[in-house]
Write a structure and sequence with these properties.
Elements: H1 2-23, E1 37-43, E2 56-61, H2 67-83, E3 86-91, H3 96-109, E4 113-116, H4 125-133, E5 138-141, E6 151-155, H5 157-171, E7 175-182, H6 187-201, E8 205-213, H7 218-231, E9 239-242, H8 245-257, E10 265-270, H9 273-281, E11 285-290, H10 293-308, E12 313-319, E13 322-325
Parallel strand pairs: 2-3, 2-4, 4-5, 5-6, 6-12, 7-8, 7-9, 9-10, 10-11
Antiparallel strand pairs: 1-12, 11-13
Helix pairs in contact: 2-10, 3-4, 5-6, 7-8
Length: about 325
């Protein structure tokens, strides 16, 4: 009888161990469903594989005053939830020194992955190099960054500028005077300008009469546009190309306040909520090249996890953009 009791206890213990083993689980990366066009060569990785449930992601972005970056921060949170990890999101407020300090803080905290939306594509190189030296992968998002990032996940910004330029050329029937509103010193902005300039090459009758830097900000652009409107009287401006929607909306406000909004039309880039509202008014703001920030940051996080798992990734990933105008805005889903 005593041997039977011992055998029973052993069987119970074995059953408990088996039950515990069957109930254990591991978080795995969800499949990547984001649409993107891929270019350039694969990047070599030297990072040791780690489990996702051990990962902390640091994300520093340009600012949180622009709805585009707000949407991006929400996408980062969603991506972290999907992967079952923690994300630390901080705003550089347009300050390169502050963003540099944020990356150094991420390094000190020993985060596993850094997502970088650079304030200055060239100026941030030193901080990126330090992260790389510490063995932390850096994924550039929206804009390129020097210093050795693992990849750049961005909209096709050249196409965004080109679509806007082609729309302006067509609407002006190949002849007119245009004001260009530039932005911060980042690759996304320079690529949009390059795309726009490529588009207007085909129309010698299109002339850029002024180029100002609105710093991607609605209020700054509105103020600068007021000065432009004083310089170029009625008939002096036919169209405005803004490298982002806040600048485009700022130009719209200035033109309306000057009572000159019917003299010109405005085209932006982003597909932001304020731009959608302006398009639906069917006034001077007539089109925007729409980006998808929520999907962009989630895709960037997916790529980061590939790096952490020791997988090779492409050095540049471009996400297509779409031209949204007053004609098709009702079918645009927005952010």
């Amino acid at each position: 009888m005593k041997s039977m009791k011992v055998l029973s206890l052993l069987l119970i213990a074995f059953g408990m161990v088996a039950l515990t083993a069957c109930s254990s689980s591991k978080i795995t990366e969800p499949p990547n469903t984001s649409e993107a066009t891929v270019a350039s060569l694969p990047t070599e990785k030297t990072v040791s594989p780690v489990k996702e449930d051990e990962v902390v992601v640091g994300f520093t972005l340009q600012n949180l005053s622009n709805p585009f970056f707000v949407a991006m921060s929400k996408g980062a949170t969603a991506g972290a939830i999907l992967h079952g990890v923690d994300v630390i999101t901080v705003s550089a407020e347009g300050d390169l020194a502050k963003q540099t300090a944020q990356i150094k803080d991420f390094i000190a905290r020993k985060v596993n992955l850094i997502l970088l939306n650079a304030v200055d594509s060239i100026g941030i190189a030193g901080a990126v190099s330090q992260a790389k030296a510490a063995g932390i992968p850096v994924i550039a998002v929206d804009v390129d960054a020097d210093g050795g990032v693992n990849t750049v996940v961005t909209s096709d910004n050249f196409l965004a500028g080109k679509l806007a330029g082609e729309y302006i050329v067509k609407r002006l029937d190949g002849k007119g005077k245009v004001v260009v509103i530039d932005g911060p010193p980042v690759s996304a902005v320079t690529d949009r300008i390059a795309g726009f300039e490529e588009a207007i090459k085909a129309a010698p009758g299109i002339r850029v009469v002024a180029k100002i830097n609105g710093h991607g900000n609605r209020e700054i652009t509105a103020s600068m546009m007021e000065t432009i409107l004083q310089t170029y009287k009625k008939g002096g401006i036919d169209a405005v190309f803004a490298t982002n929607d806040p600048s485009g909306v700022g130009a719209k406000i200035a033109a309306e306040q000057a009572g000159r909004d019917k003299e010109m039309f405005i085209v932006g880039v982003d597909g932001a909520p304020d731009a959608v509202k302006a398009l639906k008014e069917k006034k001077s703001f007539v089109a925007t090249s729409a980006q998808y920030p929520f999907e962009m940051i989630k895709l960037a996080m997916d790529e980061g996890f590939k790096v952490l798992k020791g997988e090779k990734i492409e050095s540049l990933i471009k996400i297509p953009v779409d031209l949204i105008s007053q004609d098709n805005v009702e079918t645009y889903k927005g952010w």
